[in-house]
Amino acid sequence: xxxxxxxxxxxxVHENLTAVARPGRSGGTxxxxxxxxxxxxxxxxxxxxxxxxxxxxxxxxxxxxxxxxLVLNPKLLLLDEPLEGLAPIIVxxxxxAIKTMVAEEGMAVIxxxxxxxxxxxxxxxxxxxxxxxxxxxxxxxxxLRDAATLDRYIGLRIGETA
Length: 162
Known about the structure:
alpha+beta; two-stranded antiparallel sheet; Rossmann fold; two-stranded parallel sheet; elongated; 8 helices
């Protein structure tokens, strides 16, 4: 899913989801994503099924962009800054959805996110890259507890007040 939302603004929410939907994989235990499953994950979208993309808030457009990516039934979901510039309540909803996709649905997700604490709380493994090279790799929970490494690589001081 690109950082830009890239939804079809002249189509309804439902048309956006059905225009790109692909059938799920046969066999295996992977979840099959349909528009109905997306509506279950994002009730705001279900309430706005008939709204055009131009009638959605930025956060709702972001939810729709995630939903569009899911109905493609990918093996791997790449999320590039999905929480950037969103209201705190929308960030919470999207973060909960990402956590559900990873923990309960078994979705393989690569999350690129500047908010390290939030990203580490949503993921199992973390990689810090600098100029295209991996400079640190650890379990997310371990890295979240490693204040020195977070400060050294990304300037994040956990637990300090300004």
